[in-house]
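I had to read the description of the data format several times before I understood it. The format is easy to grasp once an entry is in front of the reader. For illustration, here is how one protein appears when written out as sequence plus structure tokens:
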Amino acid sequence: MAIKIITATFNGVEGIEVNVEIDITGGLPCFNIVGLADTAVKESKERVRSAIMNSGYEFPINRITINLAPADLKKDGSQFDLPIAIGILVATGQIRFNHMNKYMLLGELSLLGDIKKIRGALPIVICGVNNNIKNFIVPIDNAEECSLIKNANIFAVNSLLDVIKRIENDEWTCYKRKRKVKNFANMILDFDDVIGQESCKRAIEVAAAGGHNLVMFGPPGAGKTMMAKRIPSVLPSLSYEESLEVTKVYSVSGNSQIDSVIVSERPFRNPHHTASRLALVGGGNNLLPGEISLAHNGVLYLDEILEFKKNVLEVLRQPLEDRIIRISRAAGTIVYPANIMLVASLNPCPCGYYGSNFKQCVCSEIEIKRYLNKLSGPLIDRIDIFSFVGTLDYKDIHSDRRGESSKEIQKRVEKARKKQKQRFEKDKIYCNSQMNEKQIRKYCSLDKSSTDFMKMVFQRFNISARVYSRLLKVARTIADLDDREGIIESDLIEALQYRKFIDQKII
């Protein structure tokens, strides 16, 4: 009689239930695994055989057939080791497993029978809960992240013998979460360290309050990178739903940063300018998420964005618009979330001093134009806010006066985000930057004076429809910061001045 054990695999950040069917019959000894299993799954035969024997049990010398259903779904990963081993022991009568259809098993086995951490445990548990399974037997190193899921009974195990003992004695103790968190941001960094630059700090506050994309430009040493690294300190904390989304991405990536803890701070990713398209988008043999997806619900910071190759920057266009990344390769198609706040900094020219009052620029117009052309028109259209960061005077640097702390700015940001959360409760979005055209028409309505002003702006500066929509989104955020229900003309004027870039022309 065939035995069925429930487990799962994942595609992108979504789990898919898989049934491990074990059939042991007479005949020449062989061990076959069918059901579109990849190399890691097929190699489980040797791990399972050694783990069973080194745990003091007999490995059957018969014809063993393992079917991973559904058979037309590609299976990869090492999480099938434990369900295969338990299925063989049940099929040979060496152990009894009552109510096995109420448990989902996952875990990689070592040759000695130890159970090791696997990749993608969190989306697998979410899949099980969605399929009315409440009991999960998982590696102890995955228990912390899996315990984040409500309505899931997590049973952490460290060896095959541990699982067998619990099964035979029917003794199950739920894992209790230790409530550790993963802090991506270094909270020692605070905006009260930033001297002056009040206009740029206001732009950062608006960007943080609405999740808008931001570009800071100015001469070297003005403080662009310094302020960018402090942006996480003013962002609101992740909600439960957002935390789940981020942790799922890190779970399937196998990224060591997660280290058995829950992601509760917004990610801050800062790839070097030599990063490739693959590093940003993701992919490779295992179709892993890239930097854009790892910054989901957080900040992707591109320092000296014009030093990146142009073809690398162009891959940002689709994720910034659709907020997802669809990776299509010969191995399959994967969809990863990409709801990011893009923050970038740049010098206005190759030497860095174009427009500076303190040092003369030595670049020719052709050199400046070639340098700035790395930012294409479509990519510039997707930037909501441009902010100039000027060089400070000596009296500003020498002054003992300090700016607002991150805590004070964060209070205003969280208040604005709270308004947005209430507004979009039925729309399944979190902030103003995520609004689609239908929601813009609903929540960004203008009075006659504001309508006339935007008509003048549209005609005078010949802006695109995308820029027009983004102006309304930024104005909506400015109104939220000022605790106003309606958008007024001054909100639109402030949003418009954030479109000034390099040569002080409206883009």
Q: What stands out?
A: The chain has a mean pLDDT of 90.
